[in-house]
Amino acid sequence: MGVNFSCLTEGDGAPKRPGLGDVPENCVAAVLMYMSPPEICQLARLNRTFRGAASADFVWESKLPANYGYLLKKLFRKDLGNRTKKEIYALLSRPNSFDGGTKEVWLEKTTGAVCLSISSRAMSITGIDDRRYWNYIPTDESRFREVAYLQQIWWFEVDGELEFQFPAGTYSLYFRIQLGRASKRFGWRYCNFDHVHGWDLKPVKFEFSTSDGQCGQTQRCLEDPDKDGKSVDASTIRGNWTDYHVGDFIVHDSNTPTKIKYSMMQIDCTHTKGGLCLDSVLIIPAAVGRRKVS
């Protein structure tokens, strides 16, 4: 009795003031479920109790997408063994390639949302086999380490499709492209615009459709005049990677695969166009996309 009482007092006999280490670990874990993964990792540094709570499986399972089991089967052929949910979250947060390295999927670290990128290699590109028109060029500016570069063509058309099991939610689809061919000279980035032409004459049409009937479409000149009718400063457009938003679609069921077809085209054969780099198609949750754009 006296021993138990002495534990609640300071050395001078005054009552001991409770601290963070006195909070039960299960209570801490229940609170951590309402925090973002970066916040959980920061709080884990406070003390042993918070560190233990931050490793609880039920905390990290609440951060994983509802169909994370599908992702594990699709991305990893080997059995992951008895990995904790925290380890699984860390594993899925890294870019993981599939379909021969032509696609990558990862979890957005702050929200745990599924993001997906599709390389130009996975798309059907008119004239891609003729080096007079297209070439694949290496670059460290792409997560796939290469992009498709258009020198000149009359009929510009890029198509692709994807079947994937997304968690329920609203997603945005983007084409990532650049006017001009970037390279490095003496450690400095340099962009060649010699082949850039034809993108201010007619708009490029971007569109997509899903297996459940959703669709989106937008048109724009890649070198468009501004609202006053004056030419936009080419340096603000050329030489910069731009994500062109095609539209949004909604996934209602996490357990049902969604098939998506997407394309970009400019098939007016009255003029040629060229000097464009095509990197990838990006599919990310709409909320993440809004933060990215802003």
What does this structure look like?
The protein is of the alpha+beta class. The protein is built from eight helices and 15 strands. The strands form three sheets. Strands 1, 2, 3, 5, 6, 8, 13 and 15 form an eight-stranded antiparallel β-sheet that branches. A hairpin with a 4-residue loop joins strand 1 and strand 2 (103-107). Residues 1-9 and 227-231 have low confidence and may be disordered.
Shape: elongated
Counting DSSP E segments of at least 2 residues, the number of strands comes to 15
Q: What structural class results from the helix and strand content?
A: alpha+beta
Low-pLDDT stretches are 1-9, 227-231
Question: What is this structure, in a nutshell?
Answer:
The chain has 294 residues and is an alpha+beta fold. It has helices at residues 2-6, 25-32, 37-43, 48-53, 57-61, 68-75, 85-93, 286-293; strands spanning 96-98, 103-107, 114-119, 124-125, 134-138, 146-150, 156-164, 169-179, 181-185, 188-192, 204-210, 215-220, 242-251, 258-266, 276-285.
